Amino acid sequence: MGIANLRGDYHRRIGEEVLRFKKDGASEYPNLADKASRASREIALGIVTRIGCPICYEFISGQTAGNLFEVITKDFLENAFDLLQHLRPGQWHYSIETPISDFEQYEHLAELENIVEQMATLASSLGTDYIIKPDIVIGRWPVSDEEIDREKRVINENNSLARLTPLRMTNSEENPRLILHASISCKWTLRSDRSQNARAEALNLIRNRKGHLPHVVAVTAEPLPTRIASLALGTGDLDCVYHFALPELTEAIREMNNEDQMEMLQTLVQGRRLRDISDLPFDLAI
Predict the structure, then answer these.
(1) Could you tell me the fold of the domain covering 3-98+133-141+178-284?
(2) Which residue from 83, 139, 243, 275 has the highest number of Cβ atoms inside 10 Å of its Cβ?
């Protein structure tokens, strides 16, 4: 199964499990649209029509929709990234909302949080929100020396070199830790302060790491490029933002001839701040 098939299955699951239609008088619109925005409703309907989602009116809460979007996106990335094992070999671990303190670069945060919680004066000045739980995390297990030496001799067991790198399992045999490879924030839609939450998480990952910075990205189904811009524009925190159906979004905006939304979409894409979900597995292999 290739990337196109996996993307199609991804959209099928979203259509069956997450997407719902709402009624507003004589009109209908998908639950990824903002009821108060005509452009949002029209673009969302254009996307849903193009990916071929069934019409379902069964109620689903916003929180449930967001949680399902995370799970389905995680499954897509796991299957898609597995296709690229020859480009990025390793033993990979995928999970939902795992604390970053479970990973090698951030394990010190659990110790720091325990100290801060026991001292009220430190808590008031430093805060306590060190350990975040990203929506999706991808970790890599350390590798054995046998695996490192599989094709040719790399490690000499009798010397003291390469004894601190977390990639060697030998260096942490008593308590091997996953290495955080990617932190992925999933936003079914972008309203009010949701984009700022993703940025705050990204800055936490950047500032508090000890070692390699993981990929820090966001995935969204938001139909309005002007709202995606609140998360995607600028550099320094998120690597990039990925849309669950970027070609379909582009076609929907072109069909409705909305110049403002198309201009912003082109700014984001040409500025390398917005890509399609199918791009993400390849970017994770970098």
Answers:
(1) Rossmann fold (3.40.50)
(2) 243
